[in-house]
Amino acid sequence: QVQLVESGGGLVQPGGSLRLACAASGPIPVIYAMGWYRQAPGKQRELVASITGGGTLNYADSVKGRFTISRDNAKNTLYLQMNSLKPEDTAVYYCWLRTLSDYWGQGTQVTVSS
Question: 35, 59 in Cβ contact below 8 A?
Fold first, then answer.
């Protein structure tokens, strides 16, 4: 059974930074892509950033220049470094893995507020 476990969320002031991590475990024969989605209250889930198996990166326009996605293949861990956080970044952040099926983490809350 594939499992994704996120960590690193929390409360941060505007302008601050957080680093999310997503540890993947279980039988993963191939990684087509991994990424981070977020969902704010009353809004649809949206893609924040993704990385393909070949290393191609993709970012939402709203986070370009502030967020960085990376992956440690040896640890099967995905990261999202979030800098210059804004109140509008407040959301539940979900880790996503595409292998032979799609898998989701349980989500981690990020709150940006003074």
Answer: no
